[in-house]
Amino acid sequence: MKRLLATMAIAACPLAACVTAPEPCTQEWVEYKSDRILGEFASENRGLINDLRRMTDNEGELNTFATMRLMSRTDDLQNFADSFQNVVIPELELALVECGQSDQFAPALTGFLRDEGVDEEALQWVAPIIGLMQQMREDDVGNPPRAM
Fold it and tell me: For 70-84, what is each residue's pLDDT tens digit?
């Protein structure tokens, strides 16, 4: 009997996922899709996001040691920014194409990091660096710039 109940519960799991997804092209659906896409990106980049959080101390002042350690991870910062620009933003835009909308999402790397708990002082320090790295990369590759 327990096995039968367990089997039925496992079989019903995919159905529950379908039931909980909001109706496409509603505001709830837009929020659901963006939360799913950004949540996956956050989990894939949790280590770097945590390092960005640690850039400031309890008083909101920049932590010199954490800042220097982060600067040694320029390749990780570049990959982080590239992934956001080349994976997250296109996925968000693709979700909107389904509904013929383009103004419901305002994805920005700094907004995402702010939502992830990165302090304003750290954002003011790291955002220009990431922006400069992206601009330099786009100039090298010849890609058109995208807003962060």
Answer: 888 889 999 999 999
Query: Read out DSSP for the chain?
Result: -HHHHHHHHHHHHHHHHHHHSPPTTSHHHHHHHHHHHHHHHHHHTHHHHHHHHTTB-TTS-B-HHHHHHHHTTHHHHHHHHHHIIIIIHHHHHHHHHTTT--SS----HHHHHHHTT--HHHHHHHHHHHHHHHHHHHHHHTPPP---
Confidence class of residue 13 from pLDDT cuts 50, 70 and 90?
low
Query: What is the residue extent of each domain of the chain?
Result: 23-141
Q: What is the pTM of this model?
A: 0.62
